[in-house]
Design brief:
α3 (93-103) packs parallel to α5 (135-147). The chain is 33% helix and 28% strand. It has helices at residues 42-49, 71-76, 93-103, 110-119, 135-147, 165-180, 192-198, 216-223, 270-279, 294-304; strands at 3-11, 17-26, 31-35, 57-62, 65-66, 78-81, 153-157, 184-189, 201-206, 209-215, 225-232, 249-251, 256-262, 284-291. InterPro entries: AAA+_ATPase, ABC_transporter-like_ATP-bd, ABC_transporter-like_CS, ABC_transporter_ATP-binding, P-loop_NTPase.
């Protein structure tokens, strides 16, 4: 376990509790996506792990180093890409990244800097000033800075906010490459598709509390529901009495019946439903099934406030 968080709490002056006893273990080489609405505690959690904010209680260890008692060693293992783009506008890209490496006491290594810039499609822009770059390219520079001292753990705090879809997918590819190199990645995002696309595990945080952390596929299997739409030849104004036991909804202007079922159940009930649809005299035109997305699961969890 490369990151170990035990009973982490953060209370600000005035009594606001931003983190409420968070416990979390992160394995080396995995990608963990932290999902949560604004004010959920995502950034506070990252800031505390990175030593930017001191915890009110609890402990955090990175690579076995306490982030408070052994700050330098812990911080040297961490790369952080913040939400805000805060770069010196007149500096050249290559100088920004090289300087960041030096801040962590790493010896000069032009070949490593070149490798990082090429990986992030920044090599052709290495002599451009930051002010000349697009917003997406500036975010790439932030990632290059974070990688310059070869960290073992990389935190990406809303890394693709304001980035177009094409560039976002390019950055997902970069994340996959880093994972292949053994880098542990913790990603906070509002884009649910990022978690679905690249995460190994998903954590849901809300109101400073970690609601759950689970393997992505297992989470979707455990909490996901499927819906079956039975398209009809007829147009209905209400669900027939003979189908009342199925808790069906009228959809498609009365020409469809929506049936929701739990994928974890011993049986779906679909065979019985289709038989009863025929028995009440309805004619089926088509069938459609849909799996709940991670976004729908996330919204449900946050609204419930519990796992």
């Amino acid at each position: 376990m490369i990151v170990d968080i035990q009973n982490l709490r953060k209370t600000y002056k005035g009594g606001f509790e931003a983190l409420k006893g968070v416990n979390l273990g992160i394995e080396e080489g995995e990608i963990l996506a932290l999902l949560g609405p604004n004010g959920a505690g995502k950034t506070t959690l990252i800031s505390t792990i990175c030593g930017i904010t001191n915890p009110s209680a609890g402990t955090v260890h990175v690579g076995g180093h306490d982030v408070v008692g052994d700050y330098r060693a812990a911080r040297a293992m961490i790369g952080l890409v913040p939400q805000e783009i805060n770069l010196e506008p007149f500096n050249k890209v290559i100088d920004v990244v090289t300087y960041s490496r030096g801040l962590f006491g790493k010896p000069r290594n032009p070949a490593k800097i070149e490798e990082i810039l090429k990986q992030l499609s920044l090599w052709d822009k290495r002599n451009a000033r930051v002010m000349e770059l697009s917003g997406g390219m500036k975010r790439r520079v932030l990632i290059a800075k974070a990688l310059s001292h070869e960290p073992k753990v990389l935190f990406l705090d809303e890394p693709t906010a304001g980035v177009d879809v094409e560039l976002r997918k390019d950055m997902w590819d970069v994340v996959a490459q880093l994972k292949a190199q053994g880098v542990t990645i913790i990603l906070t995002t509002h884009y649910i598709e990022e978690a679905e696309a690249i995460a190994d595990r998903v954590g849901v945080i809300n109101g400073g509390a970690l609601l759950l952390v689970e393997e992505k596929a297992a989470l979707m299997a455990r909490l996901g529901q499927k819906t079956l739409i039975v398209e009809l030849q007829e147009t209905l104004t209400e669900v027939p009495e003979g189908l009342a036991a199925y808790d069906l909804e009228l959809v498609q202007g009365g020409q469809g019946l929506r049936y929701t079922y739990d994928t974890r159940g011993e049986g779906t009930g679909i065979t019985r439903l289709l038989r009863d649809v025929a028995e009440v005299g309805l004619t089926m035109k088509d069938l459609q099934t849909k799996q709940s997305s991670l976004e729908e699961i996330f919204v449900g969890l946050v609204s419930e406030g519990t796992a």
